[in-house]
Amino acid sequence: MADLDNKDQAEIDPADMEDVEDVEEEETGEDENSKARQLTVQMMQNPQILAALQERLDGLNGSPSGYIESLPKVVKRRINALKNLQVKCAHIEAKFYEEVHELERKYAALYQPLFDKRSNIVKAAYEPTDEECEWKENDEEELTDEMKEKAKLEEEKKDEEKEDPKGIPDFWLTVFRNVDLLSDMLQDHDEPILKHLQDIKVKFSDPGQPMSFTLEFLFEANDFFTNTVLTKTYKMRSEPDESDPFSFDGPEIMSCAGCTIDWTKGKNVTLKTIKKKQKHKGRGTVRTVTKTVPNDSFFNFFTPPEVPESGELDEDSEAVLAADFEIGHFIRERIVPRAVLYFTGEAIEDDDDDYDEEGEEADDEEGEEEADEENDPDYDPKKDAAPPAECKQQ
């Protein structure tokens, strides 16, 4: 039977089907069962059959089994009561998130003095003391006093050779470069502008006002625009939708609004000028037409698509807004609170650690098994030799 099992697992070329079936008949005598198994193997190797099967399975995914419909009316009535309880739970959950928002506002006021000091250090408005700059790296524990002194002298020598930079140059630009979600938006012509970005702040809506938050991008004086602050406001909703209360899963961003950027003449990186040649149909003369068209830029972030009162958007606008909401939420939740760690790259490593790649663990286990086999005095490599020729996968 072991040979039969191996044959069942093998991949069989349809052209060899008859030969294989003959072998099965001679060896087992179970003609019908063998043919059925071989036919199943061949069918499962057919891409078209597999695709049709997968499509059928996808259609069944999430579909009711028919059990609920088969229940007596009195039981269905009780299920409706449970659903009404679930709706009440959703409304309580909405209140919970409203209180969470109030807590966020409260603690934002506690964080802000620290963020302001961070900003002052970055833009060279404040020079931190020696005590504030003291930081013990994990690997310093193993360094001897002599090695530490040598490293210190080398650092001082490097500092003497360089100009004394002000603050932390390109702090926010480096943060943007290090985060894939933001770097994908950056264009080469955006970077000279973002060198002037001095801080990003999060402002929450006032108590009693509809739930929202505003991102403030603070710029020093520059040659590109006259604004000192660019803003992006996100309006949120934290209440179940009456038409679909069970879909409620916490606050969701409903719309966003940017601001007008007062560009210096000729410096607007969100637009570009192109020249097109047009040929007159009758006379055949050619003229050159200059047109201004939209240009890819991070600063398009401040002019998102407007959501109509009906709430209906085309697919492109929906995709843009979905990405916009994700970026706004990420800046609020991760970038602003942990900016220095995204600047150094440490937060990026932490983010990567949150996602275990499938296969890594399996590969490690396989490697451990191989090592164990090699170290096992009773291990016989002949037992793990390739299967007989008729069982090899084609």
Show the helix and strand layout:
Elements: H1 2-9, H2 17-28, H3 31-44, H4 47-60, H5 67-70, H6 73-122, H7 130-133, H8 145-161, H9 171-178, H10 180-183, H11 191-194, E1 197-204, E2 212-219, E3 229-237, E4 252-257, E5 271-279, E6 286-294, H12 315-335, H13 339-344, H14 346-353, H15 360-375
Antiparallel strand pairs: 1-2, 2-3, 3-4, 5-6
Helix pairs in contact: 2-3
3D architecture notes:
The chain has helices at residues 2-9, 17-28, 31-44, 47-60, 67-70, 73-122, 130-133, 145-161, 171-178, 180-183, 191-194, 315-335, 339-344, 346-353, 360-375, and strands at residues 197-204, 212-219, 229-237, 252-257, 271-279, 286-294. The chain is of the alpha+beta class and 394 residues long. The strands form two sheets. It has a four-stranded antiparallel β-sheet. β1 (197-204) and β2 (212-219) form a beta hairpin. α2 (17-28) runs antiparallel to α3 (31-44). Residues 1-29, 365-374 and 381-394 have low confidence and may be disordered. Residues 1-10 have a biased composition (Basic and acidic residues). InterPro entries: NAP_family.
Q: How many strand units?
A: 6
Which structural category do the helix and sheet elements fall into? alpha+beta
Q: Kindly state the mean pLDDT as a whole number?
A: 77
Q: State the helicity in percent bands.
A: 40-55%
Q: Largest beta sheet: what is the strand line-up?
A: 1-2-3-4
Distance between the termini: 21 Å
Individual helix count? 15
Tell the overall outline. extended
How large is the radius of gyration?
Answer: 33 Å
Topology as a string of helices (H) and strands (E): HHHHHHHHHHHEEEEEEHHHH
Fraction in beta strands: 5-15%
Largest sheet: 4 strands, antiparallel
The low-confidence parts are: 1-29, 365-374, 381-394
